[in-house]
Amino acid sequence: MNKSLEYYHGEDELLIYVTGEIDHHSCDGLRLATDELINRFTPEKTVLDFRDVTFCDSSGIAFILGRYKLVTALGKSVSVINIPPQPYKIFTLAAVNKIVSLSPLKIPSRK
Amino acid sequence: MKPIKKKTVKNQFEIKLPSRSVNEGFARASVAAFAAQCDPTVEVISELKTAVSEAVTNAVVHAYPDGIGLIHIKCRLYDDNSIAVSVRDSGVGIEDIQKAREPLYTSGSEDRAGMGFTVMEALSDRITVRSRPQRGTTVTIFKKLSGRNNGQKH
Hints:
The structure holds 2 protein chains of 2 kinds.
Chain A (H helix, E strand, L loop, with lengths): L5 E4 L3 E10 L1 H18 L3 E12 L1 H16 L3 E7 L1 H9 L7 E4 L7
Parallel strand pairs in A: 2-3, 3-4, 4-5
Antiparallel strand pairs in A: 1-2
Chain B lengths: L8 E10 L5 H12 L6 H22 L6 E9 L3 E8 L7 H4 L15 H8 L2 E7 L3 E9 L10
Antiparallel strand pairs in B: 1-2, 2-3, 3-5, 4-5
């Protein structure tokens, strides 16, 4: 049930590409896979790239906050980047941005 | 006295699914696909899909603690392009509905954010919750899909 994740481990940074739908069904596998990577490398900064996340409900809120708890306990940090509009809306609704650094996906504006 | 205009149902569908988590994606996608006939904006469809996902997930997580039961999803589309989506189970029911609707409250495990109802309410025009202990729960989501305000709240 573990999700297979593409990641890059650099100097002090672990970049993880989160993909697909984040809901109650998928979040256990996603959680196990990201925690395995974070615990394996214990990087200073974990960056979750959300550009290929197609859907996210409140299970995604729990996922982000759970990873924040994990890295904070290790004295490290986590941020989420390239968040598409739908997940970004959910996260700001729940004020996740007050706890974790979030940045939206930059979509070129319409002419 | 202003006459109350009764809304006509112009289209509807119903599905029954076992309360398995693997069905959550299909359940929300089915409602989104059905609502598409009103040609709502991407944002409005996303909001509806997310609200339905929360309601269905609540039923999957809480309704049948001893096993698997059925979840009934019924969608009614009205002539004013508003939709009512009801998610019904015949499971344990909610003892204290007010408490259940509190942000951050969850009777589930540590991995649950307790934001299901909060997200549902924020993304819909109105929700109703009816429940009887051991008799089941019905959550209904009401949302305008298009019109003068294009589905927005204000």
